[in-house]
Amino acid sequence: MDQIILQILNGLDKGSAYALIALGLTLIFGTLGVVNFAHGALFMLGAFCAVTVQRLLTLSHEVVDPERTDFLGNPLKVDVPYVMDIFGESTGAAIIDWSVPLAILFAIPVMILIGVVMERGLIKHFYKRPHADQILVTFGLAIVLQEIIKYFYGANPIQTPAPEAFRGSLDFGVWLGFEANQIIYPYWRLVYFLFAAIIIAGVFAFLQFTTFGMVVRAGMADRETVGLLGIDIDKRFTMMFGIAAAVAGLAGVMYGPINAPNYHMGMDFLVLSFVVVVVGGMGSLPGAVAAGFLLGILESFASMSAVIDLIPGINQIIIYLVAIVILLTRPRGLMGRKGVMED
Q: Where does the sequence pass through the membrane (predicted)?
């Protein structure tokens, strides 16, 4: 039972990233009808927003510390971050320690701007083009963004540690009545799951309960009619592209402490996220979220040593096997609209 619970936790962790990226993909496809293969790059850019904030907060200058000397007795020069000069040593150290959560404040406007510029500058020209053209141009854009990050940040992963308060592990089993040290799980992975749940709930609440969201949902159902009512639906869809980019970016920001950001991390998640979207149903937001968590849990159970010993390599293909079965039996996906992907 403890192994089952642990694999469910691992699955929710993976599923959180899949669900957040797939949610943004579905928002873009549902509003604009665009298959955006650059969405994984937006996830990667979000992670590097955290890297950028960390580097800015740790910019430093040399000062002479008379209390510390080298082996010759000369005072040592030490690096002091500017943030400590501005806010004081203890407050400055705390700000640096919490650089990843603080990067959220930086990432939101940056990712919205990137999304709007991407949509207005490139993708709007491919609305009426075949999906194959959309895939090619957005995939090319993803490669360009990937190489830009590689040029400025290098090819090696960059550590973005979680705040010290969340670097340990929680004895999760004790909460469930197990003996101590049976189910140990990292704090930050639990934080990531809760963060993903909040973002997902926020997106659904925004679409369900705000006037802007209601108009967007109406536009997704019947774009022409909404336009005839005098509403500039194109402008709202552009903003939705920016919001979808922000969702992917925030997923990347908070994922940094779990997997050190690198220039190809977007591609690592992209294909899996598209599989999640297809399984959940193209254009279905609840389907994208449900499929993300479902496939994350399935992948986690398939990664157990007992399962791999029985069926070697199953953890690498389980998601694709599920996708094949779903597409053969229900082409529109688990929760897709009737007629979508069924022709």
A: 16-35, 102-123, 190-216, 237-258, 270-298, 310-329
pTM: 0.88
pLDDT tens digits, one per residue of 70-115: 666 677 777 888 898 889 889 999 999 999 999 999 999 999 999 9
The pLDDT of residue 232: 82
**Which CA distances in Å does 29 have to 34, 145, 152?**
5, 21, 31
Q: Which domain holds residue 321?
A: 2-59+84-329
As a whole number of angstroms, the distance between CA 147 and CA 153 comes to: 10
In this structure, are residues 18 and 292 in contact, taking their beta carbons and an 8 Å threshold?
yes
In a domain, 341, yes or no: no
Count up the domains in the chain and report the number.
1
Answer yes or no: are the C-beta atoms of 196 and 16 closer than 8 Å. Answer: yes
Per the domain annotation, does 69 fall within a domain? Answer: no
What letter does residue 331 receive in the DSSP assignment?
T
Instruction: Identify whether 157 is part of a domain.
Output: yes
